[in-house]
Design goal:
The protein is α+β, with helices and mostly antiparallel strands and 194 residues long. The termini are far apart. The chain has one domain. It has a five-stranded antiparallel β-sheet, with helices on both faces. The chain contains six helices and five strands; from the N terminus they run αβααβαββααβ.
């Protein structure tokens, strides 16, 4: 009898663990399918995300080693300023993140972490997701790697030695390399008060 109770107990524990590992985050929708009670906040956040996305997408034309070294430093310095400026202008909190971080300062907000982990497969969709966070609305916009991203986020063996050394110096725990064109490289997130 005690043996059966112990087996039942462990079976219950295993089922709870499996359930916790397979459940998707609750209360989220694809943008434009969210409840009307949060659609205004979702649109506000999406506007800020689209502006940041267009600014992050500014293309480089010169890909020589010196310009790449300067670009890594410039993006590291410029990105937080640009994000803060757009966030303040739109009255949102926002940032960039990934399942494979280069900069630990870009860790995802807690509410986004589970969804980001679920997207670290080839099955992600290019859809902005809206989360109901009770007092706020959260948004996640997936970002696909473009050819211009790959000069610093592509296969490490393709980097000039000086660039590889600089990235290692600036980001010793870098995990944001090895991407291919079109792969999910990260997300832009936003939080908006309802």
């Amino acid at each position: 009898m005690v043996n059966n109770i112990a087996k039942l107990f462990w079976l219950l524990i295993v089922l709870l663990i499996i359930s916790a590992c397979t459940n998707k985050p609750q209360n989220y929708w694809v943008l434009k399918a969210e409840p009307s009670s949060i659609s205004h906040a979702a649109e506000k956040g999406n506007s800020a995300i689209l502006i940041l996305l267009s600014n992050l997408g500014n293309k480089r034309t010169d890909h020589n080693s010196d310009s790449l070294l300067k670009e890594v430093t410039a993006r590291h310095e410029r990105a937080p300023i640009m994000i803060s400026s757009i966030a303040n202008e739109h009255g949102v909190a926002m940032g960039i993140t990934s399942g494979r971080l280069r900069n630990p300062d870009n860790a995802p907000p807690d509410w986004a972490l589970r969804y980001i982990q679920l997207c670290q497969t080839d099955n992600w969709k290019d859809e902005t997701i809206v989360f109901d966070l009770k007092e706020k609305v959260g948004l996640l916009k997936p970002v696909a790697a473009q050819k211009t991203c790959l000069s610093c986020h592509g296969p490490v063996e393709s980097f000039p030695p000086e660039l590889k050394a600089k990235i290692i110096r600036m980001f010793p725990n870098d995990k944001a390399t090895g991407y291919k064109n079109g792969e999910l490289i990260g997300f832009i997130w936003a939080e908006v008060i309802k």
